[in-house]
Amino acid sequence: MSVSESYAKEIKTAFKQFADFPMQGEQFEDFLPIIGNPKLFQKLINAFKTHLEEKFVKEKIDFIAGIEARGLLFGPSLALALGVGFVPIRRAGKLPGECAGVTFSKLDREETFEMQVEAIPFDSNVVIVDDVLATGGSASAAGELIKQGGAHILEYDFVLTLNSFRGEEKLTAPIFSIIHS
Fold first, then answer.
1. Which of 71, 157, 174, 178 would be a feasible disulfide site paired with 66, CB 3.0-4.6 Å?
2. Segment 65-82, tens digit of pLDDT
3. Are the C-beta atoms of residues 108 and 23 closer than 8 Å to each other?
4. Cα–Cα distance, 61 to 36 (Å, whole number)
5. Average pLDDT score over residue span 97-107
6. Which domains does the chain have, with CATH numbers?
7. Where is the Phosphoribosyltransferase domain (predicted)?
8. Cβ contacts of residue 144 below 8 Å, gap of 6+?
């Protein structure tokens, strides 16, 4: 699916920028205004849904895995639209039960993501979602969790990819993004 230039521009315009967040010298791209606009949010979900249904005609998507924090906000809506399961990937200590974890470097610190061990059955097909792809650390860690359980990553989907960070180089499956900046 090719996302129309006017739609991508509409989504990009809705992002709000915050200078020096989360640390000095960083420019934070906040997509929360999209969720606050029901029509725009529905367009976003529909764009991802259409793309995934067109791309994965022969392969069945079993789960959407949403990366904390913002992948947890739109991932469930996308999973519901597709009629598939949703699995959260969260920071350490946020999920009950037995969890698998992966530690990765993020900006100036190490962080650990976890997923419940039995959340995704072996040999399932998974699409991982998040709002922004920058360095690829979070998405790569999420992918490692999926692979640890014996599932397959069909694709990584993002609202925005910041090309200058080259995060796609850390990922082991194709990526799809509404906006490239």
1. 71
2. 999 989 999 999 999 999
3. yes
4. 28
5. 91
6. 5-180 (3.40.50.2020)
7. 37-152
8. 102
| Residue at token pair 């849904």 | 49
- SS3 (DSSP) at 168: helix
Residue type at position 41: F
8-21 tens-digit pLDDT: 888 888 988 899 88
Pairing of strands 175-180, 152-161: parallel
Asked whether residue 4 carries a pLDDT value surpassing 90, the answer given is no
Mean pLDDT over 150-177 rounds to 95
Q: Coil, helix or strand for 129?
A: strand
- CA dist., res. 79 & res. 159, Å (int): 15
Nearest to 126, CA basis, from 113, 137, 115? 115
Q: How far is it, in rounded angstroms, from Cα 124 to Cα 63?
A: 8
Rounded to the nearest angstrom, the gap between the alpha carbon of residue 14 and the centroid of all alpha carbons in its chain is 18
One-letter identity of residue 161: T
User: In 3D, which of 87, 76, 78 has the Cα closest to residue 52?
Assistant: 78
Residues comprising the chain, all counted: 181
Peptide bond into 22 cis (omega under 30): yes
